[in-house]
């Protein structure tokens, strides 16, 4: 065999890998849909290939929660949780809660997924839990049993408490062996997280086959009517995100708290927003977000130096809206009515799991797997949502980055860490008040 012949498979594989994974999955989604429409129920023979993809995602849920949450807790050291840190974390939690509530509200209002009866999977939960059962279920009687049994909220609670306790001990101790042991433990967590990312990469590579098989089998059984519902899903999520950005970020935070023009804020954040929409990564956008904060929004480094990197890790407002709507979408497709207890469970899971989603390839699909699993809905819905993930990911990431800058601006206002007479604030003031040096609440 000649060298040229030997290198052909490698060149082909390299060219294939050069295409972003999410676009390969999108193509698989389209091809699987086409095959299902043509072959009909015969395409169900591919179901085992799709089921394998879902099992691989399920396999990763608990390890990812444990490792990524512990890694995130390391950043929340007591020394950083002063006034700036406390306000930043509080605002991130508040905006994520508001985002999840908006997601549930628009989902209940528009009811996406009701037009098609989905028979690709069945709900695992016969009766919705009460609110008290959800709250008590967060604290497990046996932490290890909770992890083994896949109890999501209980696992998240245990990991957060343990992680914060470790950081407190690390900050307060003067004993070198203890410091070294905790540093070594977190180094192990970092290494384990990187290893898990490699596993996730492999699972997402297989996801091209998995999504193709899931869609072929599902469309062969359900028909093309299910695809129409994806347009409704994208539309409802977009409505939720627009509401959140307009009301929460621009209305309450920019106008209400900062007393500034929303257009000035958007002008200052536009580089980060465009970058986020382009690359679909809050972490990847971070250098641009920091530049916008310092140069355009005139936020002090003492504020954005902590808040923006943390926000790229835990502030997932766009994902909160996206997942809340998708859970209602999934419930409607299988004919399950989510009661108050179920919706409280969705809300709590969305808020808590957002801490550990950053930096994970295919994070949106894995997060959705976690939440569907928590409320007992069929994981086959993941195959549907994967097809529109490129669109949803761009919209959600743009929302996340905008929220990071809005929170940093508000924290700067409350801690005297922002100069509202310079940068875009001054530009906005001049454009709206003919040369005034400072924008006012009426701009």
UniProtKB/TrEMBL annotation:
Pfam family name, one: SDF
InterPro entries: Na-dicarboxylate_symporter, Na-dicarboxylate_symporter_CS, Na:dicarbo_symporter_sf
One Gene Ontology cellular component annotation held by this UniProt entry: plasma membrane
Membrane topology: Multi-pass membrane protein
PROSITE patterns: NA_DICARBOXYL_SYMP_1 (PS00713)
GO-annotated molecular function: symporter activity
Biological process per Gene Ontology, one example term: carboxylic acid transport
Location in the cell: Cell membrane
UniProt entry tagged with the keyword Secreted: no
Stored SUPFAM superfamilies: Proton glutamate symport protein (SSF118215)
Record field: transmembrane: 21-40, 52-72, 84-110, 152-169, 199-220, 226-252
Keywords: Cell membrane, Membrane, Symport, Transmembrane, Transmembrane helix, Transport
PANTHER family tied to this protein: PROTON/GLUTAMATE-ASPARTATE SYMPORTER, PROTON_GLUTAMATE-ASPARTATE SYMPORTER
Name of the protein this chain belongs to: Dicarboxylate/amino acid:cation symporter
């Amino acid at each position: 065999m000649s060298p040229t012949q030997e290198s052909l498979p490698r060149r082909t594989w390299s060219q294939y890998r050069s295409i972003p994974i999410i676009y390969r999955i999108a193509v698989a989604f389209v091809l699987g849909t086409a095959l299902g429409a043509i072959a009909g129920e015969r395409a169900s023979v591919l179901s085992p290939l799709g089921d394998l993809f879902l099992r691989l995602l399920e396999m990763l849920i608990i390890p990812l929660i444990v490792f990524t949450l512990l890694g995130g807790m390391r950043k929340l050291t007591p020394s950083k949780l002063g006034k700036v840190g406390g306000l930043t974390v509080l605002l991130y939690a508040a905006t994520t809660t508001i985002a999840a509530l908006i997601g549930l509200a628009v989902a209940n209002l528009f009811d996406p997924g009701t037009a098609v009866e989905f028979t690709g999977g069945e709900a695992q939960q016969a009766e919705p839990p009460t609110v008290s059962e959800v709250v008590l279920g967060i604290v497990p009687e046996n932490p290890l049993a909770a992890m083994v049994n896949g109890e999501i909220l209980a696992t998240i609670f245990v990991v957060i408490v343990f992680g914060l306790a470790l950081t407190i001990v690390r900050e307060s101790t003067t004993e070198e062996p203890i410091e070294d042991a905790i540093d070594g433990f977190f180094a192990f967590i970092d290494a384990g997280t990187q290893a898990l990312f490699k596993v996730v990469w492999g699972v997402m590579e297989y996801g091209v086959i998995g999504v193709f098989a899931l869609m072929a089998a599902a469309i062969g059984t359900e028909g093309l009517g299910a695809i129409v519902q994806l347009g409704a899903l994208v539309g409802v999520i977009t409505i939720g995100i627009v509401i959140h950005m307009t009301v929460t970020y621009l209305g309450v935070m920019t106008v209400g708290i900062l007393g500034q023009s929303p257009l000035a804020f958007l002008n200052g954040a536009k580089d980060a927003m465009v970058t986020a929409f382009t690359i679909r990564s809050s972490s990847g956008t971070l250098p641009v977000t920091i530049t916008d904060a310092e140069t355009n929004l005139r936020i002090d480094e003492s504020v954005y130096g902590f808040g923006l990197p943390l926000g790229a890790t835990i502030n997932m407002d766009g994902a909160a809206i996206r997942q809340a709507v998708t859970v209602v979408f999934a419930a409607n497709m299988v004919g399950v009515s989510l009661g108050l207890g179920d919706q409280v469970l969705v809300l709590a899971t969305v808020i808590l799991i957002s801490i550990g989603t950053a930096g994970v390839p295919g994070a949106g699909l894995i997060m959705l797997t976690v939440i569907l699993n928590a409320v007992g809905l069929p994981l086959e819905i993941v195959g549907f949502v994967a097809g529109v993930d490129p669109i949803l990911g761009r919209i959600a990431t743009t929302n996340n980055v905008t929220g990071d800058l809005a929170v940093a601006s508000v924290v700067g206002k409350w801690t005297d860490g922002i100069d509202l007479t310079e940068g875009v604030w001054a530009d906005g003031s001049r454009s709206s008040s003919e040369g005034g040096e400072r924008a006012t609440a009426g701009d």
